[in-house]
Amino acid sequence: MSTVDSIKTSAMRQLPVSLPPYEEQHRIGELLRVLDDQVAAHEQVAAAADAARGELSTLLMDVAAMPTAHQPDAGLAPCIDRTTEEEAEDE
Predict the structure, then answer these.
(1) Are 46 and 56 in contact (CB under 8 A)?
(2) Residues 6+ apart with CB under 8 A from 91
(3) End-to-end CA distance of the chain
(4) What stretches of 24-77 adopt beta strand conformation (E)?
(5) Taking 80 as the threshold, does the pLDDT of residue 14 lie above it?
(6) Which of 84, 85, 67, 86 is nearest to 76 (CA)?
(7) Which of 21, 38, 67, 80 has the lowest CB atom count within 10 Å?
(8) In angstroms, rounded to a whole number, what is the distance separating the alpha carbons of residues 11 and 63?
(9) Structure confidence at residue 75 (pLDDT)
(10) pTM of the predicted structure, to 2 decimals
(11) Dihedrals φ, ψ of 68, to 5°?
């Protein structure tokens, strides 16, 4: 068996509630507004960064897949000839 304790509304109305002075309430409200503005600004920066990352990713993939005159074998790493001059003369 379970019971739920409750307080009647009429009893709640009788309970004292402590509030800070009006000036302090005003300072708290102002601080919360400033924090809300900062959260909104950070969310905008994060959204812009996500969009930029997506665009950059798309551009990089498009460029990497596109062969050019300077890059006939697009997507393949260039071969580096490490033959010394002496080895080349011996061939």
Answers:
(1) no
(2) 83
(3) 96
(4) none
(5) yes
(6) 67
(7) 80
(8) 72
(9) 54
(10) 0.49
(11) -130, 175
Q: Which two tokens stand for residue 37?
A: 């503005």
Give Dmax over CA atoms of the chain in angstroms: 105
Which of 87, 62, 85, 88 is closest to 75 using CA atoms? Answer: 62
- Whether the predicted pLDDT of 82 surpasses 90: no
Cα gap 48→41, rounded to integer Å: 11
Structure tokens at 91: 């061939």
Query: Given its phi and psi angles, is residue 75 left (phi above 0), alpha (psi -120 to 50 degrees) or beta?
Result: left
Q: Judge whether 67 and 74 are in contact, CB under 8 Å.
A: yes
Structure tokens at 48: 């812009």
- The tokens for 59 are 């551009």
pLDDT per residue over 29-51, tens digit each? 999 999 999 999 999 999 999 99
Between CA 25 and CA 33 the distance in angstroms is: 12
- Pick 44 or 78 by higher pLDDT: 44
